[in-house]
Write a structure and sequence with these properties.
The complex is a heterodimer of chains A (about 280) and B (about 350). Helix content of chain A is about 80%, strand content about 0%. Chain A is an all-alpha fold and about 280 residues long. Chain A folds into two domains: about 1-45; about 65-285, MetI-like (MetI-like fold, Orthogonal Bundle). In chain A, α9 (about 175-185) packs across α10. Chain B folds into two domains: about 5-230, P-loop containing nucleotide triphosphate hydrolases (Rossmann fold, 3-Layer(aba) Sandwich); about 240-335, OB fold (Dihydrolipoamide Acetyltransferase, E2P) (Beta Barrel). In chain B, strands 6-7-8-3-9-10 form a six-stranded mixed beta sheet, sandwiched between helices. Chain B has a four-stranded antiparallel beta sheet with strand order 2-1-4-5, with helices on one face. In chain B, α5 (about 165-185) links the parallel β7 and β8. In chain B, about 40% of the residues are buried. The chains are: A mainly alpha (about 280), B alpha+beta (about 350).
Chain lengths: ~280, ~350
């Protein structure tokens, strides 16, 4: 029989058990989330006959890069990848600029109609993309921007979610700090550049990840606005490959894996920062 | 250095809420003017109006003789210390101090020399590379003061600078502030809700309540000759006792009770022995006793009400026993019971 080891271990055992249980639960959740993604990556490495056999097995018998090489060489995936990258990057840069300045202004610059603008932002969040597609298409056709990167970047450059996130975050920053800079003699632009932007860096990072992911995954509007094949983005092209090669599961899995990869990279690279800022935003906002 | 003149200033917020009514006061060149009042009386707003962080609705503000109503804070030649210190959290102490100089395009070497000079003067040499979150309350306070000093402004505005510090540190910083004012000789406007701070630091003080000036005078005169019942009750601790005249009239030797007046006596103005033939005698029963070292705080039940008494007395006192005390006529303040204004004739 083991010797009783005192109060500390009496207290420690249930805590350790609880912690182990929590980790087990989290691990199970992670496994459920990751399983389809890993299976998809695994199918991308399978030979055509193995991938096509009813339900594909979990593990490739003879791993091969044939599907990936095929997707890159014959399906112009590089072009679509480039299009997606240009659109997502431009959207991110532009919407962070807009969200940063607009969110700051809505939180800390007194101007007439500030409440109305704030209300409109909330309203903007509520409008579904589907409702905007037709008028947007008409608008862009008239200014001859259909089949142009701008057609995908401009409509989402002013992102109401991003603006509201920055506004909420900046409301948590005391106005006295900005007043102190005014007393120090800084111009309004200098205050924005040297005081406000560094203070909102965490929320800007979170907004940029959010916008990049949403823009990268956007499907409906790019499908309508980019009718020329060489201007299409990855998700749209992926759907086309799906239609053309619905029996070639390995090829589709390879294309999907390539589509997903940048998202995984972005998220892994920024997750610490991202989580921290989301928490900070919720506490101070 | 400069004078600050505030003339007939009203401030009405956009929602229609009036914060200040017809406020007029002035800080003389090199003076430390304390503005004191209960929270919500408009004292911080007054300071923000002088700084230019908010705009005046009606009235004129002059700094050094020039009307500054339409000048932004950047061009008013004022420095300000905020209640929350308002340090830039993403900058080190050095950068916080240097920011104002950099903004004004001061040469790098000159900036460095002055930042280190002020840092040394405030005992912050070892803290220059730290961030505000790594500082104690007192160090943050000193950094905020240093930032204001480097601004080299004609006027210093201090908005409750000590209220976020704990009590022992507050006393120390109060001494340092007084010393700083003496050595810089800058005009300072010091806003506080703590009347003892205003009494000890201010060369003159402005008492504000409900957005109106109640009295402007030296601390000694505000204490000795409060202009109205509010000032009498607000300045001085423990607060002044107020007694209705009607009930005081039948006290032995009390002045003839004038209808419609109220008398005020400070707790420390009671004496165990009569000082002169003119003294007013109070007789009551001891309700409560509190000893504070050499002093007694007594609650005395008079026929006309209860009073708090602060007394230096060697003999032991017991609850329930009767006590006779005297107050000099000069220490009996008289106020109009309806308007609350001081009535001079029987004051002193």
């Amino acid at each position: 029989m083991p010797e009783p080891t005192g109060v500390a271990s009496d207290m420690g055992v249930p805590t350790r058990m609880a912690r182990a249980g929590a980790y087990l639960g989290l691990a199970a959740l992670a496994a459920v989330t990751l399983f389809p993604l890993l299976w998809m990556a695994s199918i991308a490495l399978m030979s055509a006959p193995q991938a096509a056999a009813g339900t594909p097995p979990l593990w490739p018998q003879h791993p091969t890069l044939a599907n990936i090489i095929n997707v890159i060489s014959q399906q112009h995936i590089g072009t679509y990848f480039f299009n997606s990258l240009v659109v997502a990057t431009a959207t991110t840069v532009l919407s962070v600029l807009v969200a940063g300045s607009a969110g700051y202004a809505l939180a800390h610059v007194g101007f007439r109609g500030r409440r109305v603008v704030s209300g409109l932002m909330v309203f903007g969040v509520l409008i579904p993309t589907q409702a905007l597609v037709l008028p947007l298409f008409e608008m862009f056709r008239e200014v001859h921007l259909v089949n142009h990167y701008a057609a995908l970047v401009l409509p989402v450059a002013a992102n109401p979610v991003g603006i509201l996130l920055v506004q909420a975050y900046m409301r948590g920053i005391p106005a006295e700090i900005l007043d102190a800079a005014r007393i120090d003699g800084a111009s309004e632009w200098r205050i924005f550049r040297s005081v406000a932007v560094p203070l909102m860096a965490p929320i800007l990072a979170a907004v940029s990840v959010l916008v990049f992911v949403v823009s990268w995954n956007e499907f409906m509007w790019p499908m309508i606005a980019m009718q020329q094949e060489n201007m299409q983005t990855l998700p749209v092209a992926l759907a086309a490959i799906d239609r053309e090669h619905y029996q070639n599961i390995g090829l589709m899995a390879a294309a999907a894996t390539i589509t997903m990869l940048p998202m995984v990279c972005v998220f892994v690279a920024s997750q610490r920062y991202y989580l921290r800022s989301v928490i900070a935003g919720s506490l101070t906002g | 250095m400069a004078t600050v003149e505030i003339e007939h200033v009203d401030k009405v917020r956009p929602g229609g809420q009036a914060v200040l009514h017809d406020v007029s006061c002035a800080a003389r060149d090199g003076e430390l003017l304390a503005v004191v009042g209960p929270s919500g009386c408009g004292k911080s707003t007054l300071l923000r109006l002088v700084a230019g962080l908010e705009s005046v609705t009606v009235g004129v503000i002059r700094i050094g003789g020039c009307v500054v109503n339409d000048l932004p804070p950047q061009r008013r030649d004022v420095a300000m210390v905020f209640q929350s210190h308002a340090l830039y959290p993403h900058m080190t102490v050095y950068e916080n101090l240097a920011f104002g100089l950099r903004v004004r395009g001061t040469a790098r070497r000159e900036t460095d020399r002055r930042v280190r000079q002020v840092g040394a003067r405030l005992g912050l040499e070892a803290m220059l590379e730290r961030y505000p979150r790594e500082l104690s309350g007192g160090q943050r306070q000193r950094t905020a003061l240093g930032r204001a000093m480097l601004r080299d402004a004609a006027v210093f505005l201090l908005d409750e600078p000590l209220s976020s510090l704990d009590v022992p540190l507050r006393a120390e910083m109060r001494r340092e502030l007084a010393e700083l004012h003496r050595s810089l000789g800058t005009t300072m406007i010091y806003v506080t809700h703590d009347q003892s701070e205003a009494l000890s630091l201010g060369q003159r003080m402005v008492v504000l309540a409900g957005g109106r000036v109640q009295q402007i005078d030296t601390p000694v005169d505000v204490y000795r000759r409060p202009a109205n019942r509010f000032v009498a009750g607000f300045v001085g601790w423990p607060p002044m006792n107020f007694l209705r005249a009607e009930s005081l009239a039948d006290m032995v030797g009390a002045p003839a009770g004038e209808a419609g007046v109220e008398y005020g006596v400070r707790p420390e103005c009671f004496a165990a022995q009569p000082g002169g033939p003119d003294d007013v005698q109070f007789t009551g029963r001891i309700e409560r006793i509190e000893s504070q070292g050499g002093e007694w705080y007594l609650e005395l039940a008079l026929r006309c009400g209860r009073v708090l008494v602060r007394l230096r007395l060697e003999q032991a006192l017991t609850v329930g026993e009767p006590l006779r005390l005297w107050v000099r006529r000069a220490d009996l303040h008289t106020f109009d019971a309806t308007t609350g204004q001081r009535v001079e004739s029987s004051g002193r």
